[in-house]
């Protein structure tokens, strides 16, 4: 575990117009496109991080103690950190970049005063270029992985498996402007941006992992997807087909049951309840089915206990969680990294909202030192799934990248 002092940071924290720190200095922001609000962390006084699974829990305990003592923390937990919270989940062997410390950490949090709150959502700042995008899997390779997952369902190892792939593109220019385009294209509530060293995380997530408000934990799993229509009438037809689809409804209900079980590990007896089931939400490129599960945590329950019970969110694994994550490791040749992890903040006990984390979907990782951008997409595979339909869902989910392919290309080219 590394605890790094960043010094006092900028003295003037009085204006929300301080959007970015100098390159090399960590900073971040969150944008709520539904509520029309933003929280900005212009700098961090110090940070804590690790590239090792056996240190993940120690880092999160540090975050829990520091926030209980009055600090704010903002950061992320990568999907691949899971075994650091639960040894039943698959471990990931460190590679050379992990050992050298140049890879994206498994867990990273910065500590700061309260964020600067604003009604100014992120805006494009200067030129960048992202693209062209290439898929990690060919159609044939996806079909092979899909068939393997269906075999594991037939064998009774899983009921639902979230199968994902990665798109990669060269990147140059301003990462904040890329995030602005991504976030505006999705227009969701849980957008998040973070610059740390040579890494940038740009998330346009529409999904809440969990929110801790007073004595209530709330999670909103998102499972069940349909594309938006070409006209209002077509859009209504696609929504009705989504709501009536046994396969899409089953995807959601399976994960609701999983999250009820996860919350039950830290909840008072009888307090877990389904507050909403199969509610459609509209986004520019897709319809999504969401549900809401709430619980009252047991007395003295803290951040580490909550994450041990819930991480990673069941909507990005499948059910049962542990065995399905082992299947995912069998078929997905690449690490997921921040994709399918969680990004969010933790506040002191004096705040009404103690913590809020998104599920890191619709999320890109930019490696500035390599000039690359990675973006993950996935879908839930059940027994009734068909490969062609799942591929269509992946296309719908990465459609928001159409707004980021070449934004500012002419301006960028003029500078070189």
TrEMBL record:
GO terms for molecular function: 4-amino-4-deoxychorismate synthase activity; lyase activity. Residues 9-21 have a biased composition (Basic and acidic residues). Pfam families: Chorismate_bind. The keyword Cell cycle does not apply. Residues 140-397 form the Chorismate-utilising enzyme C-terminal domain. InterPro entries: ADC_synthase, Anth_synth_I-like, Chorismate_C. The keyword Repressor does not apply. Gene3D superfamilies: Anthranilate synthase (3.60.120.10). Residues 1-26 are annotated as: Disordered. Keywords: Lyase. One of its GO terms (biological process) is L-tryptophan biosynthetic process. PANTHER family: AMINOBENZOATE/ANTHRANILATE SYNTHASE, AMINODEOXYCHORISMATE SYNTHASE COMPONENT 1. This is Para-aminobenzoate synthetase/4-amino-4-deoxychorismate lyase. It comes from Mycolicibacterium moriokaense. The lineage of its organism: Bacteria, Bacillati, Actinomycetota, Actinomycetes, Mycobacteriales.
